[in-house]
Design a protein that fits this description.
The structure holds three protein chains of three kinds. Chain A is α/β, with parallel strands linked by helices. Chain A contains 13 helices and ten strands. Chain A has two domains: 159 residues, D-Maltodextrin-Binding Protein, domain 2, CATH 3.40.190.10; 149 residues, D-Maltodextrin-Binding Protein, domain 2 (3-Layer(aba) Sandwich), CATH 3.40.190.10. In chain B, 73% of the residues lie in helices and 1% in strands. Chain B has a two-stranded antiparallel ribbon with strand order 1-2. Chain B is globular and about 70 Å long. The relative contact order of chain B is 0.14. The C terminus of chain B is likely disordered. Chain C is of the alpha+beta class. Chain C folds into two domains: 220 residues, Rossmann fold (3-Layer(aba) Sandwich), CATH 3.40.50.300; 79 residues, OB fold (Dihydrolipoamide Acetyltransferase, E2P) (Beta Barrel). Helices cover 27% and strands 34% of the residues of chain C. Chain C has eight helices and 18 strands. In chain C, strands 6-7-8-3-9-10 form a six-stranded mixed β-sheet, sandwiched between helices. Chain C has a five-stranded antiparallel β-sheet with strand order 13-17-14-15-16, with no helix packed on it. In chain C, strands 2-1-4-5 form a four-stranded antiparallel β-sheet, covered by helices on one side. In chain C, β4 and β5 form a beta hairpin. The chains are: A alpha/beta, B mainly alpha, C alpha+beta. At the B-C interface, α7 and α8 of B face α1, β6 and α2 of C.
């Protein structure tokens, strides 16, 4: 029993110690605090959030969980008892779901004018665009089949010369997988026979991005040279190369890109409205915007934000990416995915 | 229990674990199911049953879990027999080593398997394993091997080996001896291990998706699909309810089996010194190849740098990668602290619950037996989301509290503690209590002198499991909103693998190797830290 | 000879548990293997049963080499000190086990089980759970189980060690009869020389993994071949004299005022017919004799030693 008691005691001490920690933290700031709910891919330099706190006296608490889908589902589930004041990271493929659930309060940021007009798709200003990234077909330049040029159109991928070279992710379980399906829906004459042709040409399907990129694509030692990834993947291949390289080993098929826009919004029911607004405004300042590319491998929404050298050199932005309105996506997604499953997974 | 425990102790014994499981499991689960099914939920459930797709999914889930369990037993029991014959020190070492897969995130394991299949030429052609059900089964054996080797091997080591010798001399060959004499006596441990393996395979998520390929769906992946991808909470809740019912049925069945025979004849000394014939090592070979292949791939990759081999990736763990809110070393430290807290919780709750299961009145005992096994068979989405919407008001507004993570981990750890403790406690001969009473020990004293040292074996084994499970937990953690400073190692690992680049991948591999070393060391320390491992039984 | 061991050696790592051992057993013979614990006698028994592999040496039965045969292929039975009954089977199914393994038909099995339980005095115990048996009953069930498949040789590993004296004496009395009734030869391992002498047609004395002497009980007692054997037989009166070493058997002394040996009586144990008397000599040596009458403790006595009952080693 003595041991049990000691464990119990340790538990209680531990609990109280941790409890103290929390209360100290939340009482420290004079200018109030704001809680930012985001997905696990969110990353920002320490100095950037510190700059915000220095400037406004507002401290930012981060809450991270899962991916976009998980985050949005959680926000909807906890709508009556919100976990946070601001959400960052809801993208255009999930946006309508959040809007339908009336997750957000209207707020038009004073910095919105500087954002690329194409990205400002919510006229009611419930959400504010913060960054964007293009989901595009990537290819490993040196691993393409002998005699094959780099593909330049979506239709090229059905060419037998690329037989058994292409790996995609299931739109059922993968966000870039869904984005690529949307790209084909918008970017081909008729997406259903297009996918049937891809299947005939030996397309491989994985559940998620990691097992496609590192499992079957050349990057992980796999034997497929074409993969669905991001326009920002080539600079990542340079920045995180081992040993260092001067040029990107991968290229991007710009004709295949679907634009994902990430938004921030003030969660309905917040008690820190002013702080939440300040945070959203801050996210559209050059300080935050210029930090975004190298941390999250997406592009800043602010036109004036300067791109880091690696991005400027190795990242390409699609001139004419595929886009579909969030409402259309939400209305059709399940049907499209079901149809895709029939065609591709049979 | 009346005889063994006083009224006050009995109260604590029942109330502490009951409150834990009720507050952190039953209440959240009930809340999420009610949210999903309340109001016309019955219809959803009927629709579900009527859908042939859902029937296929349910059927596949069950049979792959059964097949995984049988395969794991088939590979694990011979290994357990070899482990049982090892010296105490070597046994502890093997027991620690086989726990290594527990902490590996599925995405890493799946990647390693894919590579092993490729090297072995099994990724395509006539013997293609990639994206087949075989890949799922093999990976389930990889993860669950430890459950059988540890639980059955330790129990086996305590069995009187002369029983087998008696059978051999009476004319039974080795197979007959195993079937007629060994297996019936091992049954409590085998049933316990089988229940855990089944539940693990039943709710396995990442492996099914990645190794099985996008065509395979289980109830677990389907719950995720409905809850996250489609935001169809009704369907998700109906599936979760279905999953719960299936698990409930299985656990009832397995606890029946476990209870059916009182186990006696244990505790006798085993034969003095038996020369270990070399063939016994053969029993471990399948396991070593199975575990060694993918782990070898990970280790090789972790040392492989652009210019050959080196420690670069390990050194990089100390610096914060851009994708992570903190350095990987911080994540490792967090994981260890979470694991210590989760293990303490799981051990405390599991110990008390096991005592109730073994000594409690049969009604209460049965409910405890079920209640403390269920979390293992409940999907991470259900637990995560359930906590999120149920624990949102004081005094239980724990949604963003530090403790929610170790509590969620402990929920998965408790079943391990209970399932390893119960067979051990049951095996304690009641005559020992009588003997102690005659020698003048009070019931409490008798318990301390007899149950505690003997039970310690099961407890340490369970604690080792709980620690490993917590260290490697990914699913429920990823569904719980966390402060960035509470980053865990498996989440960090997953994050590192979501941006291209060899440096990040190398770091992820180094991180997984560190995790493996960490868990093996920790389990070794936990299990060799106390008396009573070999001496008592 | 029916069973013959030649040059047998068993090792545990570097330890030679049994070494350079020859042994013969005739049909129907009962051989008692005597030795202190750890001498290798149980190991030798296990080696004969096939439970320990030989490093060198051969075991043959009726001239056929069975050195490499699996335990189940040898027509032997084995009984352990604490019976080792299968806890998950009742008495009948314990006894039946060996018959089932030898594919005996169910009806014949039932009959044989009844027969054997009757032989060991437990008729009608078939459905009893083995956990409800007393120590003596359990040992009888173990005997019945071992005898059921009609083994050629029954190997007994201190089967009486855990029983109380009364039961032990009874079973010592019954065992030869049971073995005779079934025509079974037996090797009986024990560390108790009384038991060995009472049971064995011949007694083999083991020490440090070697079989030192195998002879009929009276011969072993009267003429141990070495000091080691003498000590194992319970001879404690070892005297180093000018001509070599003498061992005075415990029955070698009589109290005689004219005796050569003077000693003080230290302790006396009454044993019924006689007395176990311990004495101290003037030079501090201890002696032990069995005497018909008990001298007073503390008194000084003179003893005459019968040279016929002195064993000499050079």
């Amino acid at each position: 029993m003595k041991k049990t008691l000691m464990v119990l005691l340790a538990f209680v001490l531990f609990a109280s110690a941790c409890g103290d920690d929390d209360s100290v933290e939340s009482e420290l700031s004079d200018g109030g605090s704001v809680t930012l709910m985001t997905h696990d891919s969110f990353a920002v330099s320490d100095a950037v959030l510190e700059a915000f706190t220095d400037e406004t006296g507002i401290s930012v608490e981060l809450l991270q969980s899962g991916d976009v889908g998980v985050m949005v589902s959680e926000a909807i589930l906890t709508r009556d008892m919100p976990l946070a004041d601001v959400m960052f990271g809801i993208d255009n493929t999930f946006l309508q779901r959040g809007l339908d659930a009336e997750l957000f309060e209207v707020y038009e940021s004073r910095n919105l004018d500087g954002v690329f007009p194409d990205l400002r798709i919510d006229n009611q200003h419930r959400v504010t665009p913060i960054d964007f990234g293009d989901v595009c077909v990537n290819y490993w330049i040196d691993a393409l089949p002998e005699g094959a040029e780099a593909p330049t159109t979506l239709e090229d991928l059905t060419d037998p010369i690329y037989a058994n070279q292409f790996v995609v992710m299931s739109p059922e379980s993968s966000s870039p997988g869904l984005a690529f399906l949307l790209a084909t829906i918008n970017g081909t004459d008729d997406w259903e026979p297009y996918w049937a042709d891809l299947v005939a040409n030996g397309v491989s399907v994985t559940a998620g991005w990691s097992d496609a990129y590192y499992g079957e694509f050349t990057a992980g030692g796999g034997n497929r040279s074409i993969v669905v990834s991001y326009a920002s993947s080539p600079p990542a291949e340079v920045i995180f190369a081992d040993p260092p390289v001067d040029t990107a080993p991968t290229g991007v098929l710009l004709d295949s890109c679907f634009r994902q826009i990430e938004f921030a919004g003030i969660l309905a029911g917040t008690e820190h409205r002013a702080e939440a607004q300040a945070l959203i405004d801050f996210m559209l300042t050059p300080t935050f915007q210029e930090d975004v590319p190298l941390n999250m491998f997406v592009f800043p929404a602010l036109e004036a934000a300067a791109l880091p050298a690696e991005f400027a050199e190795f990242a390409e932005i699609a001139n004419d990416p595929q886009t579909i309105e969030p409402a259309v996506i939400e209305a059709n997604r399940d049907a499209w995915v079901d149809r895709w499953v029939e065609i591709v997974l049979g | 229990m009346n005889r063994l425990f006083g009224l006050g102790t009995r109260g604590v014994l029942v109330v502490v674990p009951a409150v834990f499981i009720a507050a952190f499991f039953l209440y959240p689960i009930a809340t999420i199911l009610w949210r999903g099914l309340g109001g016309g939920g019955g219809e959803t459930f009927l629709d579900l049953a009527a859908s042939s797709r859902q029937r296929d999914i349910a059927w596949f889930t069950i049979w792959q879990a059964i097949a995984s369990t049988l395969l794991t037993l088939a590979v694990g029991i011979p290994a357990a027999s070899a482990v049982a014959r090892l010296s105490a020190r070597r046994r502890r070492l093997v027991r620690a080593l086989v726990t290594v897969p527990f902490v590996l995130p599925t995405v890493v394991v799946a990647g390693a398997f894919t590579e092993v299949f490729a090297v072995a030429g099994l990724d395509d052609g006539a013997f293609r394993l990639r994206h087949t059900v075989w890949a799922i089964l093999i990976a389930h054996v990889f993860f669950n091997y430890a459950v059988v080797v540890r639980a059955v091997g330790s129990y086996w080591a305590a069995l009187d080996q002369r029983m087998e010798e008696a059978a051999r001399v009476l004319g039974a060959n080795s197979w007959q001896t195993f079937r007629e004499v060994t297996l019936p006596r091992l049954q409590p441990a085998v049933t316990s291990a089988a229940a855990i393996v089944f539940l693990f395979s039943f709710t396995s998520f990442g492996l099914v998706l990645i190794l099985g390929g996008p065509r395979r769906a289980t109830i677990e992946t389907e719950i995720y699909r409905q809850a996250i991808t489609r935001l169809n909470l009704e369907a998700a809740a109906a599936l979760a309810a279905l999953q719960l019912l299936a698990v409930l049925a299985l656990v009832i069945l397995s606890t029946r089996l476990e209870r059916r025979r009182p186990i006696v004849g244990r505790g006798a000394r085993s034969s003095c010194r038996t020369a270990a014939p070399t063939w016994r090592w053969g029993n471990l070979i399948i396991g070593l190849v199975l575990l060694g292949g993918p782990i070898g791939v990970l280790v090789e990759r972790s040392f492989s740098t652009g210019g050959g081999y080196g420690l670069d990736h390990y050194e990089a763990l100390g610096e914060r990668a851009r994708q992570l809110p903190a350095p990987a070393t911080t994540a490792l430290w967090n994981s260890v602290v979470f694991a210590v807290a989760a293990t303490a919780l799981a051990v405390l709750v599991g110990l008390l619950a096991s005592l109730v299961v073994v000594h409690g009145r049969s009604g209460v005992a049965r409910i405890f037996d079920l209640g403390f096994t269920l979390p293992l068979g409940t999907s991470a989405v259900t637990i995560g989301f359930g906590m999120l919407i149920a624990l949102d008001e004081p005094p239980l507004d724990l949604r963003t509290n530090w403790w929610i993570i170790p509590i969620a981990h402990a929920l998965v750890g408790v079943p391990f503690v209970v399932r390893t403790m119960v067979p051990v406690l049951r095996s304690i001969d009641p005559a020992l209590h009588e003997a102690a009473a005659v020698l003048g020990a009070s019931p409490a004293r008798a318990r301390r002198e007899i149950d505690v040292p003997i039970g310690m074996r099961g407890l340490l084994l369970g604690a080792g499991f709980a620690f490993a499970v917590s260290l490697g937990e990914f699913g429920a953690t990823s569904f719980l909103p966390r402060r960035p400073e509470n980053l865990t190692a498996p989440i960090a690992l997953f994050r590192l693998l979501t941006t291209p680049g060899d440096l990040l991948r190398g770091q992820a591999m180094a991180l997984s190797v560190v995790l493996m070393v960490l868990v093996a060391t920790a389990v070794l320390m936990i299990e060799s830290g106390r008396r009573g491992d070999e001496g008592v039984l | 000879m029916m069973l013959a061991l030649r040059g047998v050696e068993v090792r545990f790592g570097d330890v030679r548990a049994v070494t350079d051992t020859d042994l013969d057993l005739a049909a129907g013979e009962l051989l008692a293997l005597l030795g202190p614990s750890g001498c290798g006698k149980s190991t030798l028994l296990r080696a004969i049963a096939g439970l320990e592999p030989l490093v060198t040496g051969t075991i043959s039965l009726d001239g056929d080499d069975i050195t490499a045969a699996a335990p189940e292929a040898r027509p032997f039975g084995l009984m352990f000190q604490d019976h080792v009954l299968f806890p998950h089977r009742d008495v009948g199914r314990n006894v039946e086990f060996g018959l089932r393994m030898n594919a005996v038909a169910p009806a014949a099995r039932r009959e044989r089980v009844g027969e054997l339980l009757e032989l060991v005095g437990l008729a009608g115990y078939e459905r009893r759970a083995v956990t409800t048996l007393s120590g003596g009953e359990a040992q009888r069930v173990a005997l019945a189980r071992a005898l059921a498949p009609a083994p050629r040789v029954l190997l007994l590993d201190e089967p009486l060690g855990s029983l109380d004296r009364h039961l032990r004496d009874r079973l010592i009395g019954e065992l030869p009869g049971v073995l005779e009734a079934t025509g079974t030869a037996a090797i009986h391992v024990t560390h108790d020389h009384d038991e060995a002498f009472a049971l064995g047609d011949r007694v083999g004395v083991m020490h440090d993994g070697r079989l030192h002497q195998t002879d009929p009980p009276a011969e072993v007692w009267a003429a141990p071949r070495s000091l080691v054997v003498a000590r194992i037989l319970g001879h404690t009166n070892v005297i180093e004299g000018p001509t070599g070493i003498e061992v005075w058997r415990t029955d070698a002394a009589v109290i005689d005022p004219a005796g050569d040996v003077e000693a003080t009586v230290d302790r006396v144990h009454f044993r019924g017919v006689d007395h176990d008397v311990r004495l101290c000599t003037a030079d501090g040596g201890g002696l032990r004799f069995v005497l018909p009458a008990a001298p007073a403790v503390g008194s000084s006595v003179r003893l005459r030693i019968d040279p016929e009952r002195v064993i000499r080693f050079d």
